[in-house]
Amino acid sequence: MKRTRLATACGLSYDKLERYLNWMIERNLVLIDGDGFVKLTRDGERTYEELVSWIKRYVGSLRISRI
What we know:
Order of helices and strands: HHEEH
Number of strands: 2
Shape: globular
Number of helices: 3
Structural class: mainly alpha
């Protein structure tokens, strides 16, 4: 998904999304490909799965669908 659509889907301003994306890029969690699509890296996918596991354990059986 491209950044503008991702910001809208997340309910964030574009500027705030850019700050979050830059933070995640610095930590090798996401990348922006040559076509402008935001994608999870392998580390990002692993971190997502760990977060979902933590949520299930401490919050309940909540599954956040991927955007």
